[in-house]
Amino acid sequence: MSESFDIPFTSDVVPSMLSADSTIKFRCHKGISCFNACCKQADITLTPYDIIRLKKRFDISSGEFLKKHTVPFEMDADKVPGVKMKTTDEGACLFMTEEGCSVYEDRPTSCRYYPLGHLALRHKDTAEDEAHYVLIEEPHCKGHLEDREIQIRDYLAEQDVAMFKEMNREWLQLILKKKSGGPSVGKPPESSLQLYFMACFDMDRFRRFVMSDAFKKSYDLPDTTYEVLQQDDIALMKFGFQLMRQVLFAENTMPQHEQAWEKRSQEREEVWNARREVEMARYKKSEDDKYKNDV
Ligand code: SF4
Ligand code: SF4
Questions:
Q1: Is residue 151 part of a domain?
Q2: Among candidate residues 160, 181, 202, the one where a domain is terminated
Q3: How many angstroms does the Cα of residue 107 sit away from the middle of ligand 2?
Q4: Which of 181, 201, 219 is the last residue of a domain?
Q5: Is 143 near ligand 2, meaning CB less than 6 Å away?
Q6: Do 11 and 116 fall into the same domain?
Q7: How far is the CA of 110 from the centre of ligand 1 (A)?
Q8: Best residue among 13, 110, 142, 158 to mutate for probing ligand 2, ranked by most atoms within 8 Å of CB
Q9: Which ligand 2 atom is nearest residue 140's CA?
Q10: Residue 234 has pLDDT above 90, yes or no
Q11: pLDDT tens digits for 86-129?
């Protein structure tokens, strides 16, 4: 195995590795003595798809959602940005109510997997990830004492994980590749990290960037692609992952206009020259006026 990546990211629990066929003893229900205890100590890392689901639920933009409901953090030593759910000062999730989770149908990936940690492992000689799981047994969670045995695949089906798993896959691969690439991938420049944040988390701003003339001048994409990206959050999210693979790992799958970079530099130079000419003319006029007054 080369590398691993897990949800939740900060778990320090490293018990035996489980597969989808493994059986766990667990049940969570409203009548349990610890009801809501996990949400009172919430450390929830959000995936791009989690944000799409939640911003849609509240009918707000990604920017508004990020501002109101999240805090940024750095996912690794190279400062790759991530976002976590905002909590109260005591650590409770802001979506928790007496009745339970107020966003239950759209709750994030980490909440669905709990008490399982999910690890994507990749063999060095294959492109496929293998899903493995660890059981997180925290003292406050009494669900492990309940008398119910269930296979992990059935537990995940019960938590409606399939869509989230599918939608998170490419993002996890992106992070896994960044981690397993090590020094050969190197520390991304600040501009790439900012683009990554926008593409993965602030997708409404990313959409404006993709629709801008500057972007269209750089990338040679058909109009139909832009029409889809204008309408469809999921297509935009996947497009963002593709763009980031190109930016971070030089996987050149997105055609660029020939000499786009040279053209952009030339345009910048033209703007710079025009500004300089305006400044020169202004200076010349003020000098002329000065002498006119002296005469
Ligand atoms: S989103 Fe819902 S399930 Fe997840 S921590 Fe918050 S209240 Fe709990
Ligand atoms: S059983 Fe565990 S997951 Fe369920 S409410 Fe209690 S602490 Fe949370």
A1: yes
A2: 181
A3: 15
A4: 181
A5: yes
A6: yes
A7: 9
A8: 142
A9: 7
A10: yes
A11: 999 999 999 999 999 999 999 999 999 999 998 776 665 555 66
- By residue range, what is the domain housing residue 244? 188-249
Ligand nearest to the CA of 111: 1
- pTM value surpassing 0.85: no
Q: Tell me, yes or no, whether 51 lies in a domain.
A: yes
In percent, the amount of the chain with pLDDT more than 90 equals 66
Average pLDDT over residues 226-237: 98
Mean of per-residue pLDDT scores for the chain: 87
Q: Is 120 in the pocket of ligand 2 (CB under 6 A)?
A: no
Number of domains in the chain: 2
* Ligand 2 pocket test target in 24, 27, 33, 34 with most atoms within 8 Å of CB: 34
Whose CA is closest to atom 5 on ligand 1? 39
The pLDDT score that the predictor gives to residue 225 is 97
With a 6 Å cutoff on the Cβ, whether 46 touches ligand 1 is no
pLDDT digits (tens, 9 = 90+) for 38-87: 999 999 999 999 999 999 999 999 999 999 999 999 998 889 999 999 99
Question: Same structural domain for residues 139 and 26?
Answer: yes
Full 3-state SS string of the chain: CCEEEEECCCCCCCCCCECCCCEEECCCCCCCCCCCCHHHHCCCECCHHHHHHHHHHHCCCHHHHHHHHEEEEECCCCCCEEEEECECCCCCECCEECCEECCHHHCCHHHHHCCEEEEEEECCCCCCEEEEEEECCCCCCHHHHCCCEEEHHHHHHHCCCHHHHHHHHHHHHHHHHHHHHHHHCCCCCHHHHHHHHHHHCCHHHHHHHHCCHHHHHHECCCHHHHHHHHHCHHHHHHHHHHHHHHHHHCCCCCCECCCHHHHHHHHHHHHHHHHHHHHHHHHHHHHHHHHHHHC
Q: Does the Cβ of 260 fall within 6 Å of ligand 1?
A: no
pLDDT band at residue 4, thresholds of 50, 70 and 90?
Answer: very low
